[in-house]
Amino acid sequence: MPQEISLKDVPGLVGTVVGVSDWITVDQPMIDAFAGATMDHQFIHTDPVRAAAETPFGGTIAHGFLTLSLLSAMNYNCLPKIREQTMGINYGFEKVRFMSPVRTGKRIRGSFKLAEARFRGAGMLMNTYEVTVQIEDERKAALTADWITISQFDPKDRPEGV
């Protein structure tokens, strides 16, 4: 996939995987920082000794929302930039499913399939991605989501006929 594409190229990519991110290591300092930012200090995330003794995980696990929040970093890492885009907006999710816990120290990456791309208004392109966050060396995904983003652009750059 090229690092940069044009608005007119986006509709032709629907149905294809448009990016797979680099691996990100989810370590205890990252989990602890997220716990502090969200005030979610549940022991399964922040107490390795207790989590090892009292959970089936063998230690601490990442917050599901931490894994979800890393989609932004994964997106920037692997999706082609739209040449005409002036701003990107996170519109939301249709569906998020936390499939498997991410154990501390594991590496994850995102795979982005463009499910839909439609022009809205004079200067917006709404993209829906089917995202899967994989856990290295594990069969089951950490999460799946349908993520909707908006690419804003100058209306004069809108391709003809769309």
TrEMBL record:
This is Dehydratase nodulation protein. Residues 14-117 form the MaoC-like domain. InterPro entries: HotDog_dom_sf (IPR029069), MaoC-like_dom (IPR002539), NodN-like (IPR039375). CDD domains: NodN. Signal peptide: none annotated. It comes from the Bacteria. Pfam families: MaoC_dehydratas. SUPFAM superfamilies: Thioesterase/thiol ester dehydrase-isomerase.
